[in-house]
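Cross-posting from the modeling subforum.

Setting up a comparison between two proteins and wanted a second pair of eyes on the formatting. Protein 1 (sequence, then structure tokens):
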Amino acid sequence: MQNYREIPVTPNLEEQFDYPVNNFLYDCWVDDYSELKDDTLNCHWHDSFEFGYVLSGSFDYFINGTHFKLKKGDGFFINARVLHMAIADNQEKENQIFGFLFPHTLLTQGSPQLFEKYFQPIIESSIQGFHLQPTTVSQKQLLHSIQSGQRLTPNMPYFELEAITQASKVWKLVVEYVDTQNPMIQAPHRSKEQETKAILSYIYQNYANKFTIDELCKQIGISRSECFRCFKKFTNKKPMEYINEYRLFQASKLLKLSTLSIEEITKKCGFSTSSYFGKQFKELYGVTPLHYRKNNKLKTYF
């Protein structure tokens, strides 16, 4: 049984992460989607700009609900505070994406003029991001610049200086690309994004309670059909499917980190009976809750 890596997020879907070098606002990584449940990077956002380059495999990628296919050699840019998610093709042997991110403050600290001239216009524009393919000179330049970030590691000499150089180079190319190419992933969906954040926030705060989709819609102030459209666009799942999986995910954490009984976990995670909880858990995780606990015991309990 595989232990999957989790993407920590707040109730409004903001990703929580630590930069590898204290107080230096740049991070880089390789995402291996076989380490993620259902080969899926769940919906989230952050204040930083994100860049990615596909090392292997293929993906269905969603930037603020806009869907496109990524294959080896493709790349992407995601604007700050934009919802995004990805699903790897599980028919591929390997699905990996190299990525890095940084906030505008990495390059504009102490210089409001730089922010106003080179960053604010893009942050406040309708541009959510863009899909990069090696089909034009400008896209090839951006892809090469993103790919070259792989040489950076936090323990290398002069990492901070190298990272600032990398970030400056790629951002210059982004500004040039936006000025000349008018990239297409723009947002008629800003309101849908806010609705989705509100829906998911409600679920994260109330998953322990029993509620219907109609009750959820009433709390958010949207129609049932709009709720289903938001879920399809941003999570590629039906509302109850997503809610059930989130409850089971919370239950899996309690099984690992607590000494609570199965009955107590059943109630804490919003399930009506322990038998129904056990059935749902086994369907998703492949083992019973007790078997899962036995094989995933951690030292810290509460």
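Protein 2 (same layout):
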Amino acid sequence: MSTLSRPDQPPAGGPTPDALRVEHVFLGYPSPRTGEVVLAVRDLNVTVARGEFVVIVGPSGCGKTTLLEALAGLVPLHGGTIRLAGKALRGPGTDRSLVFQNASLLPWRTVRQNVEFSLQAQRRLNRPGRERVHELIRLVGLEHAERKYPHELSGGMRQRVNLARALVTAPSLLLLDEPFGALDAQTREIMQNELVRVWQAEGAEQRRTAIFVTHDVAEAVFLADRVLVFSPAPGSIRADIRIGAPRPRRAQWKRSAEFVELSDQILTALYGAAAVPGGAGTEGP
């Protein structure tokens, strides 16, 4: 069973190096007309520390989701290497979990049975596995609903189940592809806080490395240790912005000068200074 710390307790000593290394990675897909490879990601290089929460933002079609799929082992590389804990990735593995925008729960299974599913598939639903399931259902705040079916749950509740299911196998790398994109604004903000609370609840030595994709700049700043800004396709890293604000981050921080400045840095990297009010290329008051 995982060792849990207080939700507001920061990592002791911060993340440790070299969980994930992406080196000269090219990703693409065959053109339906010519059959030639169309690049989605070009010569990508990034290192992510163990226990770090990295958010990727970028324009539509820049390869963000394609990169997550490559990290999950679902699409082949057209060049370069991806190493997790020093080992080259050569396909899907139990050391990674991918959370999609839609919860994709099995409708004939209860909350508990959906969370158990990954352990059953890996033949690990033993006593420690069941304890882990119970622990995560409690951690995401659904112990009162563990006998309910997906159609009886709200959108936010379904994504809580999705998160618990992704974490139950104790992956070293958690991949999240716009998991709150289909939620209303209020539920989305609640789930941002819940995600960080659950991510931090496991002790610093066991905390998952997380890669999160979003189009929402405010969401990126609020969640991330680092924000990687992608260029238009074929995607490459245009900016690597560190978010140094301590955790826990309260909602009030979103109104601070620091938060606004960080958001402006990301917007400038995405669209240029003219896109930021008061930036170069715009008229002042």
